[in-house]
Write a structure and sequence with these properties.
Layout: E1 14-16, E2 34-36, E3 41-59, E4 72-76, E5 80-89, E6 97-106, E7 125-131, E8 134-142, H1 144-150, H2 184-187, E9 196-204, E10 211-218, E11 234-244, E12 247-257, E13 282-296, E14 299-313, E15 321-336, E16 339-348, E17 352-354, E18 365-375, E19 380-391, H3 402-407, E20 418-429
Antiparallel strand pairs: 1-2, 3-4, 3-5, 3-20, 5-6, 6-7, 7-8, 8-9, 9-10, 10-11, 11-12, 12-13, 13-14, 14-15, 15-16, 15-17, 16-18, 18-19, 19-20
Length: about 425
Amino acid sequence: MKEGSSFAVKKGTLIALACGAAFAAPQAAMAQLTLPKVDGHAMTISGHIGGGVGYVTSSGATAGETSNTVGRTVVTGGDNDIRWAGSSKLNNPMFKGWGWQVEAGFDTDTGESGSSAGILFSRNTGVGVDTPVGVFWTGKWDTPYKRINGANSVTGTATGVSASVSGIRGNQGMGGGGGGVTKTANVGDAMNFDRRQTNTMNWASPQWAGARIALQYSPDEETGAGSVPEARPRLYGAAIEYRNGPLYLGWGYEEHRDFRWGQFVTLHQFGPLSPAAGVGTHSRDTANVLSAQYTFGNTHIRAGWEELRYRQGGGTALMTHLETEHYLLGVRQNLGGPHQVSAQYVKAKDYDCEPSNMCGTDTGADQFNLLYGYRLDSNATIYVFWGRVKNDSQGNWKPSGSASSVSETSSVHPAGKKYTGYSVVFDSSF
């Protein structure tokens, strides 16, 4: 393909179309929907690929030794994606440019697509325009909340066995369900806030004195498609981030209407005597997250807090309110040359609920992660991970990613477990 072709690949010539929309971490690129800094049309190809090996096991289940997981070796596929994007700059007072992006996930350990059957592009996929007042686009996209929350971690979100924080961050510790009131498109993983939402309308502002705003709305287009015609499932999201030299601050908010979370809080979820929550006709779930980062010299510190609240009423609802809070603290130290080390701690507090006797006590968890990285070049790093999730006696939290997929034989995992994982992972971008 000739360099002057209308679809020539021009790496390194991108400027942001969705500037700030994806809210990537400060050391990463700001956006995922992009405009090339070239005249005319162009297409770019980029992505991320990795994989490795690890070992995962569990112990300490409250129900006894037979409920623990036999230790096993794992080949992990990493958190991989390939992304195609095209765009054009415009000499127009109303529109500065337009762009599109399609993104697919895949696993290097199995070669499988990282998506549900029938979904070709399972990741951030959309089309939009850049204007003097910001970027407007539609499609399937990370929520603003997810991007702010993702700015917390110093060990990544899905690379390495048991090293991911996303098993706690943005989640409620009981699986979240794999469906919802209607189709899985809008309300899959109904209780989770760490999500990439389908059928969205988005806006991201220009940068104002280091600050940016993002808004997202997923409408009620699936109303009446399920067993409860009265339910109107929809999502609202917002975020603000601020950057000033070594300082980064972020706030994210997300609200789910009629995702009907009660159906996923089942018998014995909070201990052997806890009942099911019942299912309300309507529900309203909200989450707030705060993220902070500061860099001085070769040291990078991150901290985060989030609060997840679930409410429901009508129908067969017995539990009307459920709430959990999470805290995170992490540090990354560059040791000079290709070497770096990171440490991270995540705390999930006990649940609060109404009626208060339905969720019991000792339902929290602690997560610890250690990481050593050896940079091969500007695009590739080898990591050595250690991670542990230690549940309280009635806690049901577990790691995400590869450790999650092999750690249990069913979606209902015994309470009180301590999961431990080790891995060596190759990670690269292109």
